[in-house]
Amino acid sequence: MDLSTGRDIALVILIVEAFVLSLLPLALFYFGIRGMHTLRGKLDPLLPVAQKRLRSIAHGSQDISARIVRPFIAVSCLRAQAQGTIQALIRKGRNTQ
After folding, report:
1. Distance of alpha carbon 16 from alpha carbon 13, whole angstroms
2. Mean pLDDT over residues 66-73, rounded?
3. What's the maximum distance between 2 C-alpha atoms anywhere in the chain?
4. DSSP per position, 25-87
5. What is the band of 96 on the pLDDT scale with cuts at 50, 70, 90?
């Protein structure tokens, strides 16, 4: 066996090895894509229902939080109005004296 024959055999072994080693990632990729298509087919009908429920939950939580915060905002507004009125009266009283 001379050097060129050994080189050719080594090259064939490397080509076969590269082909076999590339099959595993390709097979994983293929089955991963297939699985994602299957999963999407099962989830697509469920997504609008989930979105509707999430919208109703979001609307309910906004409504409840608005009802909880509204009295505090009203009290804060009344306090600011009273403070402004008192300060205006104090200033007016100082100007007349």
Report:
1. 5
2. 92
3. 123
4. HHHHHHHHHHHHHHHHHHHTTTHHHHHHHHHHHHHHHHHHHHHHHHHHHHHHHHHHHHHHHHH
5. low
What does the mean pLDDT of the chain come to? 91
Task: Tell me which residue has tokens 């009273």.
Answer: 82
Residue-wise pLDDT for 71-89, tens only, equals 999 999 999 999 999 998 8
Structure-token pair, residue 2: 């001379």
* Structure token pair of residue 39: 């999963």
Instruction: Tell me 97's DSSP state.
Output: -
Report d(CA 42, CA 96) in Å as an integer: 80
Q: Is 46 helix (H, G, I), strand (E, B) or coil?
A: coil
